[in-house]
Specification:
With about 140 residues, the protein is mainly alpha-helical. The chain is built from eight helices and no strands. The longest helix is centred in the C-terminal third of the chain and has 19 residues. The termini are far apart.
């Protein structure tokens, strides 16, 4: 839906439309600006101006903090499913398997494993003596 250029962004309805467009476009403000005002040749500055309006920011916060989209609540639900006592019902067992798969995914993903190996660090031989020379703690040796 397009914004009415005659109404200010501080209008509650306009702010809600802008917030919905921002969330729908995954916070791509240029795309949100193009959706809201297709008549503009360069929607980027308009999109950036959307987040400068306190009414729009308030509406975005309301949308993002809804209970059904709350990450903390979702993770809590997954842990509740995983730790639920086994009662033999098919639904409980499916929920437990689903929760285990979702919660274990970051630990089992091969991309994550490669990222952890790369972050371990490395050893540079002679770094201590080189740092001492740079800091002036040890005399430098002339190379011949």
């Amino acid at each position: 839906m397009q914004l009415n250029p005659d109404l200010p962004l501080s209008d509650k309805f306009q702010a809600r439309l802008a917030a919905q467009a921002i969330c729908r476009n995954n916070f791509n403000l240029t795309a949100a600006g193009a959706e809201l005002r297709p008549d503009l040749k360069h929607p980027g500055p308009f999109g950036a101006r959307l987040m400068d309006e306190p009414a729009v920011v308030h509406e975005v916060n309301k949308i993002m903090n809804r209970g059904d989209r709350n990450v903390t609540r979702y993770k809590s639900l997954m842990w509740d499913w995983l730790e639920a006592p086994a009662d033999g019902t098919k639904e409980t067992e499916e929920n437990r398997r689903t929760a285990a798969r979702i919660l274990a995914k970051p630990y089992l993903d091969p991309k994550m494993a490669r990222g952890q190996e790369a972050a371990q660090g490395f050893v540079v031989e002679g770094l201590e003596s080189g740092a001492g020379i740079l800091a002036g703690d040890s005399p430098s040796k002339k190379l011949q």
